[in-house]
Amino acid sequence: MGGHTVKMDNLHGLFKSSGFSSVETFIASGNVVFDTKSVDAMVLEKRIEKQLREALGYEVAVFIRTSMELAGIAKYELFPQPAVDKASALNIAFLKDKLDEQSKQKLMGLRTDIDDFHVHEREVYWLCLKKKSESTFSNALLEKTIGRKSTMRGVNTIKKMTVKYASKQ
């Protein structure tokens, strides 16, 4: 959570005490799955951010996706499969809203022979063709380049979540 460590059982408890049902954390990465009657994701994100700030004492950016949105993200094929197979990583950065054209152009200016990017909906897909240690790209550089917060997850994590929570669709 932005350089801070929060134990998943603590995060789980914070969501439960906030009135969410069927709360589960998924691996130790800040992923929280829950049920809510709220249909406005932006309002819900702000509510959770406020509650986390009050409970933890620092700002936490929250990015909400429904199980259906997550399934679409996991299935989205943007790079040729041979490139994906040879790559060391395919990561997905989650944003609160879609990038404007100027931000997309700035991001595409970061392409190298190691790093390739694709923007779709509210996500940035990063294909790292060599070892991540050889890349100069990071979530911090992404945020600086596009001027907004993001959180990044590996595509395998997204696929595992999609399989586990498919029944919530």
Radius of gyration (CA) equals 16 Å
Number of helices: 7
Average predicted confidence as pLDDT: 92
Q: Could you tell me how far the N terminus lies from the C terminus, measured between alpha carbons in angstroms?
A: 27 Å
Structural class, by secondary structure, is: alpha+beta
Low-confidence stretches: none
Biggest sheet details = 4 strands, antiparallel
**Which CATH first-tier class of the largest domain would you pick?**
Alpha Beta
Based on the structure given, which CATH architecture of the largest domain is correct?
2-Layer Sandwich
Please trace the helix and strand order, writing H or E for each element: HEEHHHEHEEHEH
Q: Quick one: overall form?
A: globular
Q: Give the number of DSSP strands.
A: 6
Q: State the strand order across the main sheet.
A: 4-5-3-6
Helix content: 25-40%
CATH H-tier superfamily of the largest domain: bacterial protein sp0830 like
**CATH topology of the largest domain, anyone?**
Alpha-Beta Plaits
β-strand amount: 15-25%
Give the number of domains.
2
Word description of this protein:
The structure is a single chain. The chain has 169 residues and is α+β, with helices and mostly antiparallel strands. It contains seven helices and six strands. It folds into two domains: 8-64, no CATH class; 68-168, bacterial protein sp0830 like (Alpha-Beta Plaits, 2-Layer Sandwich), CATH 3.30.70.1260. Strands 4-5-3-6 form a four-stranded antiparallel beta sheet. A two-stranded antiparallel ribbon has the order 1-2. Helix 3 (67-75) packs across helix 7.
